[in-house]
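User: I'll paste a sequence; please echo it back and then give the predicted structure.

Assistant: Echoing your sequence first, then the prediction.
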Amino acid sequence: MNYKERMYKQLAIDLDCSVEELKNTKNIFKISGRNNNMRRSETLERTQMHLICINDKMVARCSDERVIKWLEKEYSNFNSNWLGSYHITRKFDEGLKQFGIRVALFDTFYIPNDNIKDINCDVLNNFMLKWYNSNELKCFEGDRRFEEALLFYQNAPDMIALTASKNDNIIAMAAANADRPNMWQMGINVLPEYHGQGIATALVATLKNKIIELDILPYYTTSVSHVVSQKIAIKAGFIPAFTELVTMTEDEKISLN
């Protein structure tokens, strides 16, 4: 599987542009709403503007023509690598305020690293492992121990999970949901008393490999400030691919998923 090409094809759908546009060096701003083939998540389905930073550029879509004209005026020649700098993000957020929207989330997305094939997962030998398919995951609904691994969102169903147990108690879970047909987003939870043992890295790496065997592209997402989660992604064989910014209205509460 060509991980980058699979990613580019889906991002082109998400942002209503071509793969060629994603790969060039020009910032792209599209007047466009959602379509049924775009990534399905609560935040993305509610956002007024969807923007990614990739290849030193930004690509954004919004159904509000005023927003697109503002982006074209203020950011046509902007190097997107610096959008995450706080003072620049703050200025960007203040600019969006005139349209009744604000920055909601700014996350980093990771895809598998072609140069890393084998991850040491020996730590899992100390635990009982169990796989779950989509039909078996309902038993965890409402279990707050694993709310970062499982979403229970009907438009992006949880598809597969791997748990690690000690003395018949589940102490960690890695899972993936199908928010895109050919790309599944991964999440991980490890109980606090088991942090720092490499369990998260090993579970994420094992689940990543399983999803690749299914001819699905696994990807991992975390906040630009969540260093612990970023380390897990990299150690598990992922590499940063792009960052994503979504918006919210000023009086809206928004999920972190």
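The first strand starts at residue 28 and ends at 31. Strands lie at 28-31, 49-54, 57-62, 101-112, 128-133, 158-166, 169-177, 183-190, 217-223, 238-249.
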